[in-house]
Amino acid sequence: MALLKPKYYVSSFEHMSIERLKQQGIKLLLCDIDNTLVSYDEKHPSPSVIAFIDRVKSSGIEVALCSNATKERATRFSKDLNVSTTYYFSMKPLPKNFIQAMKKHNLKANQVAIIGDQMFTDILGGNLAGLYTILTAPIAVKDRGVTKINRFFENIVYKVLEHKGDFKRGEFDD
Ligand SMILES: [Mg+2]
Description:
The protein is α/β, with parallel strands linked by helices. It has helices at 18-23, 47-58, 71-81, 96-105, 119-129, 145-163, and strands spanning 8-10, 28-31, 62-66, 85-87, 112-116, 132-136.
């Protein structure tokens, strides 16, 4: 269960403290797209997403997109956001892309953070690889396909973690 628990829990990417990441020694932020930055039906990032990515980059932390979305969708976002590295169809929670990202940027796992909205892909995968994991509340209530199934199990995990007094849904760190 500890592998499903994020190290940092925020209500939205906009409330993620870049300062906190700097203090943790983070050099690279891997960013999920769907339901983390935008909802599934948005084709392009909003101005607030663009501003967020710019803020992270200008703080000296590099950004890469890491999404289970299609190549077309993920590369469109990387262009719009001016992000050089994009991993699409990443098959999170498998660590393949996390290991690639560490190699490419010559970083250790504890210098890499991932922000995402799903415990069973972003957080589990990140924790397995030893990354600094950031869970954000999902943008849209509506989910698709396998995410619906993941959410079912997520609800159980939230209940167990809450029961243990470890973690409570909606009680954000920032
Ligand atoms: Mg997502």
